[in-house]
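FYI - complex with alpha-D-galactopyranose, inputs then prediction.
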Amino acid sequence: MEVTSALVEQTLELFEQDCSASPRVFFAPGRANLGGAHMDYNGGKVMPAALSRGTCIALSPRTDGLLRLRSAQFPGETAEVPIADLRPGRTKSWSAYSEGALYYAAQAWGDLPGLDIFVNADLPMGRGLSSSASVECGMVFAVSKLLEVDANVDEMIRLAHRAENEYVGVRCGILDQAAIFLAKADSILLFDCLELTREHLPFPSEKVAIAILDSGVQRELANSAFNERVAECTRALALLQEELPGVTCLRDVKRRDFEDQKDLLPPNLARRVEHVVSEFERTNIASRALRNGNLAGFGATLSSAHESLKTNYEVSTPELDTLVEAAQSVEGCLGSRLTGAGFGGCTVSVVSADRQEDFSAIVPEVYERKTGRKTKVDWFHPFSGPEEISL
Ligand code: GLA
């Protein structure tokens, strides 16, 4: 599978409408997370795959130190700022993701010249597929190539992550940036967010496919609700540490200790920790299943994760639940859950290759009948990380 050439061509065309230089062009994928939901900022393990849709960046240097940034998704708006004036918190607008990545890349690797940049994505925004990390990672990768830095992948993950945490101000963990930079085709990444170890687990495209369905509900207030979940986990950890001083993050809380100390927590925080403890167990089951080629066993962990995200973590919506139930009712669907932070956005399902047609026909039909909303299935196989497109 390759980056969509229509995306690349359109990006080039739009870049050239306003700039006569010939740009270099880069692509960074989006991602779907299939295991370890809300585990990254709790020190757990995550299991994402990159998607063949993402962000295309056309970029060429200028000599005047100015950043001129345009985006196909925000037509008519140009962010124009001297690169020397980039600062965390400077803007809350769409340009913050790119600016943040440029800012931290310049801090790490030396001054940037001025830049003309055009950004274009074929990934929906705010739907749990990491459209923001895709921009950040693409920018960091592009700068590394432009400055001819022999950048280490872990450093690039950190720089892109700082863009989101510090420049944009979302307190996310490292899942999205790690997923994008470490992705390999036909495999699910198993990334340990505490120990920073990684393993690529086989996800054979001749046997299974990934179905993404968009509920059509934008993640309203997603960032503040997301930050609220992060704060709840921080609070729960502090309360548990009164009795469990050796615990440094919620991932360290063992099932038995949690059962013994549950009463220290108010009910909503106990539900959050129940999710983290059970999701950590699920990532272990899911990774064992993939190592053994047990795709059905892997799929089952998606469905049980959704149940926990709905009742314990409380980040699902009626639309996401309807999509997941519709998916689970199709023979050959091995498992289904919301992907990303939740609060709207998309679901991800694992479907046997020979059942894709039925799945595509049935799930959107059931969803429309039950919610009045239209959707469609987008099919993927795990894709690779950022790349420069040769023109
Ligand atoms: C968002 C965040 C990630 C991660 C997921 C939930 O996508 O950006 O860091 O916390 O939610 O798993």
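The first helix runs from residue 5 to 16. The domain at 5-203+384-389 is CATH 3.30.230.10 (Ribosomal Protein S5; domain 2).
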